[in-house]
Description:
- This protein has helices at about 10-20, 30, 50-55, 60-65, 65-80, 85-95, 110-115, 170-185, 205-210, 235-250; strands spanning about 20-25, 100-105, 120, 125-130, 160-165, 185-190, 215, 230.
- Strands 3-2-1-6-7-8 form a six-stranded parallel sheet, with helices on both faces.
- The chain contains ten helices and eight strands.
Amino acid sequence: MHTYSPQIPASLVTALRAAERVAVLTGSGISAESGVPTFREAQTGLWVQYDPQQLATPEAFKNNPRLVWEWYAWRRELVTKAKPNPGHLALVHLEPMVPELSLITQNIDGLHQRAGSQGVIELHGNITRTRCSIDGEPVESWNETGEIPPRCPRCGGYLRPDVVWFGEMLPETALMTAIEIAERCDIFFSIGTSAVVQPAASLPLNAKRQGAILVEINPDETPLTPLVTYSLSGQAGDILHRLVQIASIR
Length: 250
């Protein structure tokens, strides 16, 4: 069944056309529209017995590195099969329409980049990349010896997905850049995010404090909903597509 978006407010279209700096924060909701299960959704098949929040931790990797590596290999396969949806593509089309568009994501699937978005700021890393668990440096290739996880070709430490686990700090440069963007934008879009995972959940509040117009696109209400200038209830693929279409017609 197709979910139709509500009427796009004319005042939002006018504001978008006039905006100099637009910031966008995306969460798992936009990826869910591409068939990527959100982190809190039930696991399937072999993984149904595991709690994702117990696997995505440094402790889990230390206790059972093979289990964690194999779980991420399964998730990577799901992501590889997924395709960018109209929400991702609408953001690509929005980019040349405004003088400055900054895209910040909590998602680790790389779908924004595959859609064609430039300079995406990844707060939680990227599941398609691998790094050394000892020095944290990215690793492009390694010797396949059959050992799981594979070993770093430089130091022999276990390799791990280049993602942020529970209890780990976000990449400092990405976070500081995101905060700066939020504090100097004219319009801030919060799209498909639960608005509860910190520190990302603070970004729209930072933007609002600095006088930005706050727009939420989400089928569900969140803690952010009562605070926004515009709450557009529905799927990002539908609403964003329509908004960008309308804003592009002068």
